[in-house]
Amino acid sequence: MQSSLIHMGHRLKQILKQKKIKIVDFATMAGFTNQIAHYHLRKNDMKRATMERFCNLIGITPDEFMRWNGAMQLTNGKSIHHGERLQHIIAEKGLNKSKLAGRLEMSRRTMYNLFEKESFSPDELDRVAKGLDLSVEGFLNPGTLQESRNTDSEEMMLLREKYYKLLEEYTQLLKSHATLKDEMLQLKKELAAFRKQHD
Question: Which DSSP category does 2 fall into?
Fold first, then answer.
């Protein structure tokens, strides 16, 4: 079967990009969360019925999906627009722009200015690739081995963010617990004092 020769998730991602459909909009069209959309875009294989449903949503035939070669237009050397590539990766990974700006050690305004730039300086390229957990080659060549090698990093970033969130919640719970403990001790003292007075 032909589907085994192509990465179905990557193919869907390419088509969405070239049809200028944001992943978040695709998720809404399909009636599921952004996370589920990203799950489908990472999957190597896809059920025929699912693929047909997605094709229907984005306005192409299953045959067009299987023969899609628009990716060729993207990877012809350096003709990639660096700013647009950066925006695409941010949308693709569902990254928080404020946090990313922090990782890039620049203000949000400076980062937004990068979106307009057709080509980054070597320093900007290094900084952006590092901030995205990509190699420079992976940034410059969408869909290449250098990029896919970093899918672990992408999942690691998501797990890291989840971990920090849980850690914050845990710390908050500990504080609440300590406060409740103090209140309990205070109530016990007041109760003891009350009993003394009324004995």
Answer: G
Cα separations (Å) of 48 from 3, 145, 154, 167, 190? 9, 26, 27, 41, 70
Helices and strands: H and E segment counts in the chain: 13, 0
**Which CATH superfamily, name and number, covers 2-74?**
lambda repressor-like DNA-binding domains (1.10.260.40)
* Nearest alpha carbon to residue 41 among 59, 60, 54: 54
Residue with tokens 């914050």: 168
pLDDT tens sequence across 17-45? 888 889 999 999 999 898 999 999 988 88
Global pTM?
A: 0.36
Cα angle, residue 97 at apex, residues 94 and 98 outer, rounded to 5°: 135
Cα gap 175→169, rounded to integer Å: 10
User: Would the pLDDT of 130 be above 50?
Assistant: yes
- The CATH homologous superfamily to which domain 82-149 belongs is lambda repressor-like DNA-binding domains (1.10.260.40)
